[in-house]
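pasting input
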Amino acid sequence: MQLTQYTDFSLRTLVYLAIQPERETLCRIAEITEVFGLSSNHVSKFIHHLGKLGYLQTVRGKNGGFKLAVKPVDINIGKVVRQLENTLQPIDCGLGPCVFLPACKLKGALGEAVNAYLAVLDKYSLDDIITNKSDLRACIATIPTVVELL
Amino acid sequence: MQLTQYTDFSLRTLVYLAIQPERETLCRIAEITEVFGLSSNHVSKFIHHLGKLGYLQTVRGKNGGFKLAVKPVDINIGKVVRQLENTLQPIDCGLGPCVFLPACKLKGALGEAVNAYLAVLDKYSLDDIITNKSDLRACIATIPTVVELL
């Protein structure tokens, strides 16, 4: 019942971008790859997706890259999870397919549980997740930024 | 954020066993394999696990098999999910490992969401899931029982 790694690393990246001090350069794929130990192929996919969803402003070209396009207070964690998870179905009734499908009450109970899960996340904005910004910045203080990486 | 297939099919099997009419024979692996379209290897693992957890009474030998060892009203869905899921951690912070680990508030929010998910399931017993027993029985009426399978 874990979030997919895709959603997990997308959220971590939003946190990373939200705690950046004022900087002249945009963030680039190579920086996220370095920070989270991911392949650039993996990172490219969710950066593109977050851009399409309007959370990132992306700029092409030599000095291109991306940054948050929305204030952290306007990024709702529940909404992001709903947008990025490949399914919100609690189980896959199509597996089998399940013989109990026409009369199943299990799916109803599990669906109610998923709704309760999402309702908790709906209470949180990205801003709530970075209230300890200086502690979070300390976590990445030793990581080279894109300037040093290039 | 789906339940694992292991938990999913364990729950389906508990439903299947709970709606059985009075029968002289015990259920066998082959019957569950047939009903849910699973490999016997897969079924054997969760049947053994459900037995170890005390939910099933298992009998070895030629006329052996298994049946519920506990009344459906005494089987709590939240408890079963906690026992069968291989992790209740909402994300795997060990992946990377995550640079934000010492100061992360995301994990707290996601953990609160998982607790809300489980709290909903804690309200349900297996008995609540089979209140429409006759409808559920109709779903499996055309499936051969172990007697016909052997």
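fyi The mean pLDDT of chain A is 93.
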